[in-house]
Design brief:
Low-confidence stretches: 49-55
Strand order of the largest sheet: 4-1-5-6-7
Shape: elongated
Distance between the termini: 39 Å
Strand content: 5-15%
Number of helices: 21
């Protein structure tokens, strides 16, 4: 999957302040587009997406979401400069600037690295090969240093301590609280989630042309399909999204989640592995990939394939552990790693070191007053692992009161079932833990 490169530039033929007429479509076709392709990226120009109606908001979303951008400042077009300012405010790097005029650059961008190209009398690039090579080189440099590319935004260069909103890492579970978008769409989807799959599908149909919908609506619809366990609906929706939104971290994570729930584990694994390879490990992505490996382990275990099961179990533990180490504040991958370590034969000794760390992480979340279902579910599993009935029972009550989607208690009940089976194999039995498992399964059924 090639990275997307958004192109900021005028369209058609425009007369610039110097009096020359520039054929910007020729600049795009002969210079910018081939340069982006040569860098192994996919160009995306605003007019290439038929979004219908007002283009402004979808265009801005694509501008922010694309990992790379090329901006042609020739003619000092007001719209291009406005878009460049927005890009520089949220992206510290990976924006290449072009200028096709003689003389100095506009004052505000004069100190910034800019690719110069020559224009012929016909308004087209007179030496396109040189321009292609220069733009490709800049984009290659940005890709090569993707973990810490050189800053090209004056905002990030000059304003010490400035931190942009982390759009790519917006956590799924808090999306609806943080995203701002049309209130009528938000309320319609909230009501539909209470009505089940058919109601969500009907609400989606009422939203009209989804290709023109803003990103907030699309992601809430994606999470609404998830809330009613319509995994195929999630997959189909991602296929219809704009490319920048579909390739965003949050959407790709949920796409992998849905593929795994559909049993398409090879595809789910590929999607989530690519995210980790390009974005780095995270508690969210690794937690989802760990679940893929956990499901593979469970399938091999049930068929009696001990060697394959052992390999997948180790892979699941390592993946969850990597996710927990990426963000110690998120206990979800940590508790999954601990639980699977407990199920290993013999139990993984690292669980004894990890248990207090996971416990501390979830207690800090609780102390901050922002716990969600997974925080209470983590304490629940910790209580079961420690055979602490009082702690597990209290956490169960809190978890049941915090359920948002039916698959959540189902997931926790499945973990408790695995613990129960492992203990039964060792001649152990904990009746009260079985009662908690049944209570979670009952809640999962709605």
């Amino acid at each position: 999957m090639k990275p997307l490169c958004f192109v900021l530039m005028p369209f058609g033929r425009k007369t610039i302040p110097s009096g020359q007429t520039v054929d910007f479509d020729a600049v795009y076709a002969n210079l910018i587009q081939p340069a982006i392709a040569a860098a192994g990226m996919e160009p995306l120009r605003a007019d290439e997406e038929a979004v219908g109606g007002m283009i402004h908001k979808p265009m801005y979303e694509r501008l922010i979401l694309c990992d790379y951008a090329v901006a042609d400042l020739t003619g000092a077009n007001a719209n291009v400069f406005y878009e460049l300012g927005l890009r520089h405010g949220v992206r510290p790097a990976t924006t290449v600037m072009l200028f096709g005029e003689k003389g100095p650059l506009p004052f505000d961008v004069a100190p910034l690295r800019t690719v110069r190209y020559a224009l012929g009398a016909d308004g087209k690039p007179s030496e396109p090969a040189a321009g292609v090579a220069a733009v490709t080189r800049f984009l290659y440099e940005a890709r090569r240093t993707k973990d810490e590319p050189p800053k090209d935004s004056p905002v990030f260069q000059l304003v010490e301590g400035y931190v942009a909103p982390d759009i790519a890492r917006l956590k799924t579970d808090v999306f609806r609280e943080q995203a701002q978008y049309a209130a009528d769409a938000r309320n319609r989807l909230a009501a539909a989630r209470r009505g089940g799959k058919d109601a969500v599908k009907a609400a989606a149909a009422e939203l009209g042309d989804l290709s023109a919908a803003e990103s907030g609506v699309m992601i809430d619809l994606l999470l609404s399909y998830r809330a009613v366990s319509d995994w195929q609906g999630m997959v189909d929706l991602v296929a219809g999204m704009s490319k920048p939104l579909a390739r965003s971290t949050l959407v790709q994570e949920q796409y992998g989640f849905a593929l795994n729930r559909l049993g398409r584990r090879d595809e789910a694994e590929a999607v989530l592995q690519e995210l980790i390879a390009t974005r780095g490990p995270s508690s969210e992505t690794n937690g989802l990939l760990g679940r893929v490996y956990k499901d593979r382990w469970d399938a091999e275990r049930k068929t009696g394939n001990a060697f394959a099961a052992r390999g997948w179990l180790k892979k699941a533990i390592d993946t969850y552990l990597q996710g927990f180490e990426a963000d110690w504040r998120d206990a979800f991958p940590g508790i999954n790693a601990v639980t699977l370590m407990e199920l290993a034969n013999p139990p993984d000794p690292r669980r004894l070191e990890l248990l207090p760390v996971v416990t501390y992480a979830v207690k800090r979340r609780l102390a901050k007053g922002t716990p969600d279902y997974w925080d209470h579910a983590t304490l629940l599993e910790l209580g079961v692992l420690a055979k602490d009935e009082a702690a597990a029972s209290e956490a169960t009550a809190n978890a049941l009161a915090a359920v948002r989607e039916n698959w959540e208690p189902e997931t926790t009940a499945r973990n408790l079932g695995l613990i129960r089976e492992a203990r039964a194999a060792n001649g152990e039995g904990v009746g009260w833990a079985d009662d908690i498992e049944q209570a979670l399964l009952a809640r999962a059924k709605g």
